[in-house]
TrEMBL record:
Cross-referenced SUPFAM superfamilies: GlnB-like
InterPro entries given in the database record: Ion_tolerance_CutA, N-reg_PII-like_a/b, N-reg_PII/ATP_PRibTrfase_C
A Pfam family hit: CutA1
GO molecular function annotations of the record: copper ion binding
Source organism, top-level taxon: Bacteria
Single GO biological process annotation from the record: response to metal ion
Family assignment from sequence similarity: Belongs to the CutA family.
Taxonomic placement: Bacteria, Bacillati, Actinomycetota, Actinomycetes, Kitasatosporales
Organism of origin: Streptomyces netropsis (Streptoverticillium netropsis)
Protein name: Periplasmic divalent cation tolerance protein
Amino acid sequence: MADFLIVMTTVDNQNAARKLSRSAVEANLAASGQVTGPVETTYRHLGEVSEGIEYQVTFRTTGDRREALEKHLVDNHPYDSPEAIAITIDAGRAEYLDWITRATR
């Protein structure tokens, strides 16, 4: 299991993004959550290609918090089948990575 991760999801409005970001940090599931957007998205859904506006939420967390963070996102997400992807942080300043650990405890 990776020690440190970036976990991402997207939602359809800024308020939902802010709510997911704040609730995950308050629950100590992520050290931080950043809301970016609006972003334009092209996607395939139910056989149709569509376009829309979304907001991306990017979390920094530890490997041992990933499953709980994913469950939190799924349970509190406005989409039926939300994105919850994780990317390993391969390297970072020790002080920053220590902060991620402390902030998720």
